[in-house]
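Entry for the shared binder. Reason: the reviewer on the internal report wants the predicted structure included alongside the sequence.
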Amino acid sequence: MTKPLGIRPLRARDRPGITRILESVGNFTPAEIATALELVDAWLATGEASDYYCLILDASPDPEHTDVQGYVCYGPTPLTESTFDLYWIAVDRASHGKGYGRLLLETAERDVRRRHGTLLLIETSSQESYGSTTHFYERAGYALVARVPNFYRANDDKLIFAKSL
């Protein structure tokens, strides 16, 4: 029996796929990958109590296996009433251009709305290698609302995108 491409909560057996994706993208440093995996581990340890929500896009036709093609991690912003942060979104480099990132982002937005969120923030780097990332956010209706110069390192600004939901 085959199952359709689907998005579901991340499970422990998906973690190696997340690691593979983070490494395949090519933009993330080892420290950034370790940080992303800390959020995955927090979700795996305590689920929603972690205040992180981690979803994967599973392309396996076999319900007994997993073929992680992308993931998204987001959660409520501490000390706010209805703001959420999108912490990580990544799609396997071999699957870029298939609409998987858009599907993951739209799913996260729907879930944020369901949780009574009204604003979703995304932070990213200004480095040239993130150009397709910033265009992805802009095409999805996010506005660049802030730039913090030299935030990550010299000549690497923090860009903050926002979308009212």
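Summary line for the report: Residues 81 and 117 are 8 Å apart (CA to CA).
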